[in-house]
Design brief:
9% strand; two-stranded parallel sheet; 7 helices; 155 residues
């Protein structure tokens, strides 16, 4: 893979090479990706990832949440006093509203990017912690079904 292929092509190739990958060594997929890409890749046997998506997207006002991805540039957040993700316990969600973050982005404040990066990195860390826990407890398929479709939504 060269990064940038459609997701279905990536999944097809992972499926084709997975039987030939050693089971006793980490399986690495470079440049992936969205929360849904990560769920799909784990389901197909991948162990390790790296990606600029959580930080790059954050700098453009896109915040990943357990309900989907929020574009904080959208006018609907102008007066929204809710936290970025009410279920998240990161310092950003505990202290700042969607309206404040929207204001920072619209004002061109560097703090907007920093806060959104903090949240997205926290979200990705939590996502991977939950994936590991589901794998350890033997309930990854339930976790996968519960979150597939939801994490990829634009909200």
């Amino acid at each position: 893979l060269a990064v940038g292929e459609p997701a279905e092509e990536m999944y097809r190739i992972i499926k084709a090479v997975e039987p030939f990958m050693p089971e006793d060594k980490p399986r690495y997929l470079m440049g992936v990706g969205t929360p849904e890409n990560i769920l799909e890749a784990v389901r197909r046997g991948v162990d390790l990832f790296d990606c600029v998506m959580p930080t790059r997207n954050a700098r453009h006002g896109h915040a990943f949440t357990w309900d989907g991805c929020r574009n904080l540039m959208n006018a609907k957040y102008t007066l929204d006093e809710l936290p970025l993700d009410p279920t998240c316990d990161c310092p950003v969600c505990q202290n700042f509203s969607r309206a404040y973050l929207h204001h920072l982005f619209k004002s061109g404040e560097m703090l907007a990017m920093r806060l959104c990066v903090i949240h997205n990195i926290y979200f990705y860390n939590t996502l991977l912690e939950r994936i590991r826990k589901a794998l350890d407890e033997g309930c990854f398929e339930d976790f996968y079904r519960e979150n597939t479709g939801k994490l990829g939504k634009r909200i």
